[in-house]
């Protein structure tokens, strides 16, 4: 059997992948801090009582989802996010934008409309007919921005009018992000290069969920065998993996940090006890 590669069949442009840092801002950032503190406390308690890894994952799953939502909102609270999308539209005339949470999509849509940009949206609860209509008006050039959820808007549809897509959030599933970015990297794409911009939270003084997830995503992009030949370095790798594999790696990293914090706290407590000198009895 002869395997025909995607680039051989479709003659698609190179993918140009960029990871751009952005500083989260606003009320959503301290909400994120609150949830991350709850995660650290929950992990510390679970480790202290000897909970299994499965039990620990179950205990913090809801908190992780909440933290990711607040982080997404904090990233779009920085005007630089909308500035970037605005600049792409100004230069190219169109842009694909993907997020994970509906709340992030709704808030970003408001911000883009305040800039005077025309937007269509698609998410998990968008009926198929409305989703198809959103694709049609975008492809016809009647609107400038297609804003959708990574999962719901990343399948079946074709949006090759845009040669740039922006991810404002990351997804647990590498293959899902790959499917989403390929909505514009399809037959009919005539640009010399297809740009994929992923926004990562820049928080050197905080625990950074984006950093944990991105490390796993980049590793999978760089190391998985090439099946769909897309010509451009790590962008030419087929991204595989499940939400569990990425999520478990993130939880393991958080557990490792919590364990180090617990060891440091115990060492500090032991040192303090040694410094206490009992009073001599007279």
UniProtKB/TrEMBL annotation:
<dbReference type="GO" id="GO:0006281">
    <property type="term" value="P:DNA repair"/>
</dbReference>
<dbReference type="InterPro" id="IPR027417">
    <property type="entry name" value="P-loop_NTPase"/>
</dbReference>
<keyword id="KW-0378">Hydrolase</keyword>
<dbReference type="GO" id="GO:0004386">
    <property type="term" value="F:helicase activity"/>
</dbReference>
<dbReference type="Pfam" id="PF00271">
    <property type="entry name" value="Helicase_C"/>
</dbReference>
<dbReference type="GO" id="GO:0031297">
    <property type="term" value="P:replication fork processing"/>
</dbReference>
<dbReference type="InterPro" id="IPR001650">
    <property type="entry name" value="Helicase_C-like"/>
</dbReference>
<feature type="domain" description="Helicase C-terminal">
    <location>
        <begin position="83"/>
        <end position="232"/>
    </location>
</feature>
<dbReference type="GO" id="GO:0016787">
    <property type="term" value="F:hydrolase activity"/>
</dbReference>
<dbReference type="InterPro" id="IPR049730">
    <property type="entry name" value="SNF2/RAD54-like_C"/>
</dbReference>
<protein>
    <recommendedName>
        <fullName>Helicase C-terminal domain-containing protein</fullName>
    </recommendedName>
</protein>
